[in-house]
Amino acid sequence: MHSPKEAIEGCLFPLTVPVAELCPRCSKTGFGEDFFCPICSGYGRIQSERKFSLSIPPRVKHGTKIRLSMEDIGLRNVYLNVMVSIDPSLEEKGLKGGE
Ligand SMILES: [Zn+2]
Fold first, then answer.
1. What pTM, to 2 d.p., does this model score?
2. Distance of alpha carbon 6 from alpha carbon 15, whole angstroms
3. Is residue 93 very low, low, confident or very high in pLDDT (cuts 50, 70, 90)?
4. How many A from CA of 35 to the centre of ligand 1?
């Protein structure tokens, strides 16, 4: 859980995204030394996950959508829309200081 203070000052939000990766043992053939690769059961791909750090800009407002490009994992033109949700009263409090 991230504190309202972090939402106001900006922070890095860790995200885990499930991805299918090529099997490290047999790659895409699905055949290892044995008949079927024991790691991927012959699919040639394994379920894996990648960790991202989503950077939340300072003074982010309630309802802001943040786009995260996933090009680093080979997904082009895929963006994650993250909706920021902040208690409106806390948002006001945080915005008093600057601007
Ligand atoms: Zn395999």
1. 0.45
2. 16
3. low
4. 10
Range of the structural domain that residue 91 is part of: 4-96
CA of 48 to the centre of ligand 1 (A): 13
Q: State the total domains in the chain.
A: 1
* 46 CA to centre of ligand 1 in angstroms: 8
Compute and round to an integer the Cα radius of gyration of the chain.
20
Helix (H) or strand (E) holding 9: helix 4-9
pLDDT in tens, 18-57: 888 888 888 756 555 556 788 888 888 888 888 877 777 7
- Residue 40 CA, ligand 1 centroid: distance in Å: 4
**What dihedral angle (degrees, nearest 10) is formed by the CA atoms of 52, 70, 47, 33?**
-110
* Sign of the dihedral defined by the CA atoms of residues 55, 59, 62, 63, in that order: negative
